[in-house]
Specification:
By secondary structure, the protein is of the alpha+beta class. The chain has one domain: Glutaredoxin (3-Layer(aba) Sandwich). It is built from nine helices and six strands; from the N terminus they run E-H-E-E-H-H-E-H-H-H-H-H-E-E-H. The strands form two sheets. It has a four-stranded mixed sheet with strand order 2-1-5-6. It has a two-stranded antiparallel sheet with strand order 3-4. Strand 5 and strand 6 form a beta hairpin.
Length: 213
């Protein structure tokens, strides 16, 4: 039986924990359909903090300033995210000195990775690098992540050195802002069905099931 082709656009930021969880739930839903779908996923940039300096900002202080999150609220949120991550096979490893970081270079690399159909692998590696391995986004660390997924490190160095995709990333982000998107993750199925946020596995299954009819 021929597989049903489906295109899924994911609007995401690599420092967004709900993007990790939402992607994990989407993958769980797809796995429940066995091999019925031929899936093409395209990742789109969305910087939650585009003006964040390169050195970053303490995560708890950042959340307190931006959202009014208390220390107690932060502890509860981290515990809850850690548990939700476990359910989709992802390890969140929060620590006191953790920083919110600028992700513009990450998104340039993600845009570049589209050329080799490697966005999924790079997104997963960046999620793991930041949330699981206490990584930062210095250029040497980003090149290490690129090498880990088998991409060309010299090309990646050139992308970062020349800001090769900086303007493209900004234009794509502008497009989503103009469409009224103010938060991520966002999942778009075949350019029509839209799910906002880290929906439950069953919700993803409900949308996917519509494309089998």
């Amino acid at each position: 039986m021929a597989k049903t082709k489906i295109n899924i656009d994911i609007v995401s930021d690599v420092v967004c924990p709900w993007c990790v969880i939402g992607y994990g739930r989407l993958q769980a839903a797809l796995a429940n359909f066995d091999t019925k779908f031929a899936v093409n996923i395209v990742w789109h940039p969305f910087e939650l903090n585009p003006s964040m300096p390169k050195e970053g900002e303490n995560l708890r202080q950042h959340l307190s300033k931006k959202y009014g999150t208390t220390s107690e609220g932060s502890i509860r949120a981290r515990a809850m995210l850690t548990e939700e991550g476990k359910k989709v096979g992802f390890r969140f490893n929060y620590f006191d000195e953790m920083k919110m970081l600028n992700t513009h270079q990450c998104h340039q690399l993600m845009h570049w990775a589209k050329e080799s159909n490697s966005q999924n692998q790079l997104a997963e590696a960046l999620f793991e690098h930041f949330f699981s391995k206490k990584g930062t986004f210095t250029e040497p660390e980003l090149i290490h992540v690129v090498e880990k997924v088998g991409l060309n490190s010299l090309q990646a160095q050139s992308v970062l050195a020349n800001n090769s995709y900086s303007e493209e990333v900004k234009l794509i982000e502008k497009h989503w802002h103009q469409r009224g998107i103010h938060g991520v993750p966002l999942f778009i199925f075949n350019g029509e069905q839209v799910l906002s946020g880290a929906q439950e596995v069953a919700t993803f299954e409900g949308v996917l099931n519509q494309y089998l009819k």
